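Two proteins, back to back. First:
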Amino acid sequence: MEFLIVTGLSGAGKTQAAHFLEDLGYYCVDNMPSALLQPFAEFCIASQGRFTKVALVTDVRAHESFEQLFRALDSLRALDCTFRILFLEAPESTLVRRYKETRRRHPLAEPGKTVQAALREEIALMQPVRDRADYIINTQNLTLAQLHKKLCRLFTETGEAKLPINVVAFGYKYGIPIDADLVLDVRFLPNPYYIEELKEKNLLKESEGAMIVDLDEYDMAPCLVMKKDGSSIYATRDLAAIFYRKKEYNFDKCIYVTGLEQKLHFAQVFKVIELLGYDWYQNLVHVPYGLVSMEGGKLSTRNGNVIYAEQILHEAIEKIHEIINEKNPDLPNKEEVSRQVGIGAILFNDLYNQRIKDVIFNWDKILNFDGETGPYVQYTYARCASVFRKVGAVELPAEIDYSVLTDDVTMNLLKDLTRFPEVIKEAADKYEPFMIARFAVSVAQHFNKFYHDCQINVEEENVKLARLKVVDVTMKVIKSALDLLGIECPEQM
């Protein structure tokens, strides 16, 4: 754990330094009292790696002895924390000029006291801190860029700040991204990679000035590869992308997951690959999905009716947290369980239906603990775990007398469990995760029937062990099913 104490004279640039340090990955806190330093350090350590570099800005605004600060810093060593002190300063004349320009009040200024007098008092007060500083920077002749460069040299491994570059593809009909620094229109750049091959194999035809691949023979509209103005279109770019991916990754299978409305588009593109003579066209797969709509309206980026996934996930977590507080207020680690169940509920809702079917988003349905939902399946897993907590430490033997399991309820559960390998294979072959989701619900329903009808912790040891084995297998199957769907399984809910 590393602490950097940023201090110095008022007007010397501590605020700007803190901004630059934030850009370098430091968590910055301004004007923290010394008494809070040790509790704050303990909080950072408990964050499990979230806060590894912390910058604390302190100066005469704290109105406390710097001996208190030194004692607080020394206490950090007992927590295996290291610290360094960065002191910023500038000549008195420079600081007075800066105060005149900003018209800000000096922290030590009083009625009748000049800025110059306040600065001299501050310099005397700050001298003990300056004497213990690891780094002293005079900002008199430094521009902001130069200060940034100095901090990079001192507090980064490379000595240089990394320049993040975000490359964003966008459609002009939606408008240019407002935060773009550089906009490039690549629609008119020639791409002979695919055009030349189509020409060589006599697949290109001219149609009203545009170049197409005629697919009438295959009951499809023509595939437009170049508009009459020479620009490319979606199909041309997808063709180029397919060849690039095949060359770069030599894929065994290339799967495109998009909306159902693009079904014809990919059928055309894949057919062109086939006509070019590449036998790996059979390994190109389009997996279409239906649309998700909120009750009361369709989501549309064009109309500005957009709800972001992050927003949905945060809201789901909050709603689950409220439900848990009501149903099980003493549950340990409620925040983590809320995250697991909230995110799981959203994922399960999307994956529960056949992928080509449209989904209507409904909070009451998604977060229901009793319906065919993610929380219901997760709760069933937690119920299995609770059985073993109640029974205590029991080691299930390798040899179990399964002949005692004769009732219909148990048989129905076991029959359902045996379907798991078959369900996985069929879901994979058909690219249909809903099969796994519905299987998980079916298992959960059968288990809950078993849980209510068949007492598990009974006196007959052979019956008890056999039923515990059923619980154990159910737990493993549910966890495996939810793992395949990207959903976590809390032990308690």
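And the second protein:
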Amino acid sequence: MKLNRLLENNDMGCVFTGPGDPAEIEITSIETDNRRCIAGSLFVCIKGYVTDGHRYAAAAVASGAAAVLAQSREALAEYGFDWEHSKAAVIFCPDTRWALSGVSATFYGDPSQKLRLVGVTGTKGKTSTTYMLRAIYQAAGLETGLVGTICNKIGEEEIPSERTTPEANILQELLFRMLERKIGTCIMEVSSQGLHLERVGHCHFGTAVFTNLSTDHIGENEHANMEEYAEAKSKLFTMCENALINRDSAYAGKMLEKAERSGAKIYTFGIDSECDFHAKNIITKQNGVEYDVAVGRREYRIVVPVPGRFSVYNSLAAFATSYLEGISPEQAAAGLRKVFVPGKAENVPTGRDFSVLIDYAHNPDSFINILTTVKEYAKRTVFLFGCGGDRNRPRELMGETAGKYADFTIITSDNPRSEDPESIVRDIEKGIIPTGADYICIVDRRSAIEYALKNARPGDVIVLAGKGHETEQILKDRTVPFDEREIVREILNTMK
């Protein structure tokens, strides 16, 4: 595609400085990583939290980039890039993140205008809701794309996911590939960072869903406070046709206000509030939940093989979304009966008189969700968790929450990254000590799991929290294989 075509979108405020004629410069790819640049690439300089893409402009040109899109002359000059004498074309714009989403959408033919894009945002429930939606579409005989935390999918093709919502150029390429495969709908987790950093800036959503909002992603390099966090989430409801809002959330009003101002059609769901899609007659079991939902004059019985009140919200959101997208309630109910979400209250068969669940819970609210669910049927809840390093998590509060809600807690390591694992454990311990709860610290996570299994009592439910679907552990100097399902099986085999 010629460079001038990419710059036609006036909302980006791009200014071409040369050299060459933009009508003659052929662009072969859009890149933010200079190591991916090839002959003809457009390299977009993104200023991140860790490094600044302007630093790598010269390296991108050396790799063949035909053009560089930068935020300012000063930003390039800071890293010694002589833009006035560059052999590559140079373009300046006020916001390279916004421009990246714009040029990427144009380069790939605005795929979100051609397929149906369904976006799910919220602190908790994004992954579960998207997987439930995918199960519904499968029950309806429809192939989908999936973009999210666990992985990205084009039909059944699985693509590793580096972040919940990919950078704009990666996202637009994924959507383009879905169109090539004749896929009609993409179901996407939309993170607050994805919204705040304009990764979905030039996307058009058919239906946008709000699950909930709770304390998470607050701190350095994330959001300054809950108000800023909510504001980021609410952006999704300015770029959709249908807005589906959890009426029970304290932040529903914020989302409804944004949706109303944007002209979206508004629908609500919930348990405790009057809403368009209301769950009632709820039954919670060890192996799942059941409830009724009314659509028009008819009621449908929904059965979901994932335990917990939160599963009612997630499945209700999926049911309502599929209804708004034209799927019958019968097909939705059939899909929800078969849903499986990796790492979400996932049962690991033990063949013993105790149970093991793997769950992605990694903040105080999600701790409460899984622990209150398990307490309904467990004789004793054994809760094993750690905190990720280089993350702004409320470690003491997580320790306090575990102490209040679990019968026995094993504090261990998660993904320590560059931090000292023992130091992280001590931070957590400061929160659990005042609760007077029964606990032990075992820094090595495999040893901690082994302790939990070898000391299990009849009727115990052991919850391995924090890693969920992950199959690796990130240490200071290396990343090692760490699939908790396999580890549990290996340890149990030694106990025969």
